[in-house]
């Protein structure tokens, strides 16, 4: 990445600008703007997050926000209520209070003498979600949005209930947020006499969100609120949607470009869950330059040519050897002037010839261990590995070796006729690229709770032995399968630890299966290009403890239990400007017996540390999830230390009825 130090306008920074909400709650904002904005007002750009601007997102903030400010914007990074250096309490993700606060910050920014009255909103993940949700509320000053790695459907395309199946990340993310929100504000900003009171109040009111999310197992009003797919026409601001093929949120770009009536463009690269100017696998792109073109057009009224850009730009990845991490993905950029693209044809492939006996799918509960993380973000061993171990536990439909290469672009689907011997059963479908030597690389996957085959809002139990029709939609993908390789469609009824297992071992009887494969005419090379990545001066730190990520799968030969253990040590660094050191370690274990879905368990343990000049705090958060045939059981604990003295402890425990059907 090229570091830019000279900008058209000189930048000034305000590390703790207070923005007081109508109810008196003070939000803390870090703001960069041109030094002369008071004389020559500029548009504002808002990023509104719970992830702590002081020590959480500071790496990416430092690259991004001063860059925008230097090009004539007031760039505002706000700590959400109840997090970081802001006052107040947070009780859920995307709450009415959160979205109202964002709207109030937009109105506040638009009214400042240094602002020209136009505001944009941006973000990745949580920030990508809430900028779309805020746009749907149509605050008058909000003219444009850049949403990265986000979703339009909080129920079926987030970390909660993919295809109506309970994602393990539902519990995993609740554990992460319990840890993230357990940390105190910085005494240097809020004061030596206030930080402890704010911290203890925050801890006493801390929510553990897993039980709340488990109480909404169907697509009810809780999930519809904030899901902009309920009414795409509500979004009037111009939307630039960006994502990556190695991220869990890869479908949103297509949904938005296909449905938004306001100006909209989409970009999908080969990336994990990161901003695309420093993302991997490479190639990264000059995201900040692209963002400036977007902001300049919609916030300043400058003709930047953005409206002539293709509606959908995507990276079609080449086939590679399967491995848990790819530092780069060879391929090419393709462009479609409209999306869905008329040149993309659907190839229909019958997987079970008429008259054949049904294929019996009865996977061990351990099928899925090669699947990788839902949204990888550590630049480590989190991608899907060689699929052969999972293929061996699935029913596989192998196609003939290709005589010529094909480009897949879009969302493959598999239509099935299936019967189950149980009232509830899941189905997982993987599309794989099988190399001539047998290595199997995951292209895309989809899962479906078969009781949700017709509706996520009104599921219907299966009648054992009765054949039903179902449609399994796989995630969007851009992938070239070379000549000599084969496509494999692998079907299982377990996908651990991506989804929580059905309460009983089930057998599925597939009497018909059809693959619907979206094929684009073979690209001859790059059809569009992007500038090389640029950024402002990087965050100045010293490393106290280096980062390290590890994954281990262990089989207890006595009990048969298989355990996936993950340790992500994010290291510890010290800020060279204000001296705050922060460190964190996440530990997860996911255990299951191949024959017993009720043996499934998940455990997490997070450690967070903050210190400066003899002052130090530490939080330890742990959580565990199990289930029987009738209930989910969830427990959690917070311990908070000042120095080595325990100053707070709290336990959570709840049993939630299991009503996925």
UniProtKB/TrEMBL annotation:
The domain of life is Bacteria
Any single GO molecular-function term of the entry would be: dipeptidyl-peptidase activity
Pfam families per record = Peptidase_S15, PepX_C
Supply the InterPro entries for this chain.
Answer: AB_hydrolase_fold, CocE/Ser_esterase, Galactose-bd-like_sf, Xaa-Pro-like_dom, Xaa-Pro_dipept_C, Xaa-Pro_dipeptidyl-ppase/CocE
> Ranges for the Xaa-Pro dipeptidyl-peptidase C-terminal domain?
292-540
Task: Give UniProt keywords alphabetically.
Answer: Hydrolase
Q: What is this protein called?
A: Peptidase S15
Q: What is the lineage of its organism?
A: Bacteria, Pseudomonadati, Pseudomonadota, Alphaproteobacteria, Hyphomicrobiales
